[in-house]
Amino acid sequence: MIYISSFRLSGEKVKNPNIYPYNVFADKEWDPFVFGRITVLCGNNASGKSTLLNIIGNVLSLYGTEDVAVWGSRGYFTEFCSQCGYSLGEEEDGRPIKKIPLHSRYIKSEDVLYEIKKIQKAAILEEDYVYEHVRRGMKKEEALAQQKKESPNFLEIQRFAQEKYSNGETSLQLFDDWIEPNALYLMDEPEVSLSPQNQIALAEKLNDMSRFLNCQFIIATHSPFMLGTLDARIYDIDSRYAEVKKWNELDHVRFMYDFFQKHRDEF
Q1: Superfamily of chain region 4-103+180-266
Q2: pLDDT tens, residue by residue, 151-174
Q3: Strand partners, 186
Q4: pTM for this prediction
Q5: Three-class SS of residue 233?
């Protein structure tokens, strides 16, 4: 399903070259982005991919977008967003989509790490509860039974507690919990904390969700494992014109390829 088919950034200019977010795209000559079921915005650090996602999220009023500080007395970020434009997609039967699904959202890498920290903290507190009661003479089984009565989500916390040192497994579980059918999702570097194997597993999961659950994804990443697995349209936003490229044509992927070629004898 294509919920948003294209997006055009503001072409307005401001006198001060340091005004955010105008300064991020000052040297770019980008045509409107055209989105497929999965679209990837690929670029190096400070290329503007996170800013671009946040702008799209703000224009579409998606849950999870970030507030941006006002510069002086003017809200330049809000002004910039108001100057952007977009077009919605079509239903499977060709009827135009009238609005973005309400449960669509913007998922940032910080969101995932924040949730992991909350889960870990809760798990540690649960362990401390049991430890303290055992130290005072209560049997462990009795302490667990009492804690279960006091905390309705005890079993859920314990399930995560078993994985509290595996951020990758917890991240995959969070994506399962957050992503629902029939919605648009913006994702900023979802591979953070994931091993290469789990990055590929996530990419395969997103392929299936776009194909079978009518989800649309716009993803910012520079993971070669994600790029090489996703069935995606890839924009190289390091380039002045945001060219569409194959994953193996991207400079940083070639850099990694050359690195392993240089060390191939060590394998």
Answers
A1: P-loop containing nucleotide triphosphate hydrolases (3.40.50.300)
A2: 555 545 545 444 444 566 677 777
A3: 106, 218
A4: 0.80
A5: strand
